[in-house]
Automatic annotation (TrEMBL):
Cofactor(s) the protein needs: Mg(2+)
GO molecular function: endonuclease activity; hydrolase activity; metal ion binding; RNA binding; RNA nuclease activity
Role played: Involved in intercistronic processing of primary transcripts from chloroplast operons. The endonucleolytic activity of the enzyme depends on the number of phosphates at the 5' end, is inhibited by structured RNA, and preferentially cleaves A/U-rich sequences.
Keywords: Endonuclease, Hydrolase, Magnesium, Metal-binding, Nuclease, RNA-binding
PANTHER family documented for this protein: RIBONUCLEASE, RIBONUCLEASE E_G-LIKE PROTEIN, CHLOROPLASTIC
Listed name of the protein: RNA-binding protein AU-1/Ribonuclease E/G domain-containing protein
Biological process annotations from GO: RNA processing
């Protein structure tokens, strides 16, 4: 390190120290924890509040939330709001440097009634960004408590450099509800049934068409839980046999429906086959007799 600094910044050589303790250097100064915190959208504040940082390609929004110290009335509540906003001002300036956020940053502070308090928050932000090496401009708070900060963009933010979009949510931070995915599966099977030339006899379960449904393990649990499973209800309503398979490489919400053929029986995959009851299920239950399951196909490597 010293040899490297001799070439680019000799005046910094005297700052280099040899760290020889047993605790790893990054653990000693909580570097790993700081890196993990940079990937989090929520940043806690010392007085119980928090920041919620949302980064997009166009701009960055920062929402200031109050914590347990926000209770009170009149001047006491105004003082509590001011304390949270002042703590947020310092933390925002720090997060801009840590995450190397550039471009337009819109901060939504907690609303304050006193204009002098708004001025205090504005001055605190200006003072906090003075340490920043990049050029930062701060606007005063609007009547709705919004502040616009512009910071010179040199490179992509650290968050975008050390992370990549989630394959499940594609960067939205939300995944499709299982009920929504279930409706899409029902629509896809209905579409395939409508395209079939040969129509099945609803009263004859043996004539019902057969499909292989490949889903992720979350959807598999959703379809097979309970006494009367959702897969059984789906099969009975659509008048079709459904062979359920767990696809390990599928992300949540992904599925595939294909017609069942004999050559599929030779596939060596982990699978869960669900056999549904015949149309006489209700009558058999009432009579107390043992209900007979109608198998889809007896597979060599699987179950009925």
């Amino acid at each position: 390190v010293t040899s490297y600094l001799q070439d680019i910044a000799p005046d910094l050589c005297d700052r280099v120290e040899l760290y020889d303790k047993r605790i790893p250097l990054f653990d000693k100064f909580n570097i790993e924890e700081e890196i993990n915190n940079m990937l989090s959208k929520r940043v806690p504040l010392p007085n119980g509040g928090s920041l919620v940082i949302e980064q997009t390609e166009a701009l960055v929004s920062i929402d200031v939330n109050g914590g347990h110290g926000m209770f009170g009335h009149g001047s006491s509540k105004e003082k509590a709001i001011l304390d949270v906003n002042l703590a947020a001002a310092k933390q925002i300036a720090r997060e801009l440097r840590l995450r190397d956020i550039g471009g337009i940053i819109v901060v939504d502070f907690i609303d304050m009634a006193d204009d002098s308090n708004k001025r205090l928050v504005y001055e605190e932000v200006k003072k906090a960004v003075e340490r920043d090496r990049s050029m930062v401009k701060v606007s005063e708070l609007s009547r709705h408590g919004l502040m616009e900060i512009t910071r010179k963009r040199v490179r992509p933010s650290v968050t975008f450099m050390i992370s990549e979009p989630c394959t499940c949510c594609q960067g939205t931070g939300r995944v499709e509800a299982l009920e929504t995915s279930f409706s899409k599966i029902e629509q896809e099977i209905s579409r395939l049934l409508a395209m079939m030339e040969q129509k099945a006899d609803p009263e004859n379960p043996k004539s019902w068409p057969r499909f292989i449904l490949r889903v992720d393990h979350h959807m598999c649990n959703y379809l097979t839980s309970g006494k009367r499973t959702r897969l059984a209800v789906l099969s009975s309503s659509l008048k079709a046999w459904i062979l359920l398979k767990v696809a390990r490489g599928f992300t949540r919400g992904a599925f595939e429906v294909i017609p069942y053929t004999d050559d599929k029986a030779s596939e060596n995959q982990h699978q869960v086959a669900i056999s549904l009851l015949r149309s006489a299920e209700a009558r058999a239950n009432k009579s107390g007799k043992k209900v007979t399951l109608v198998p889809i196909k007896k597979l060599k490597s699987g179950r009925k």
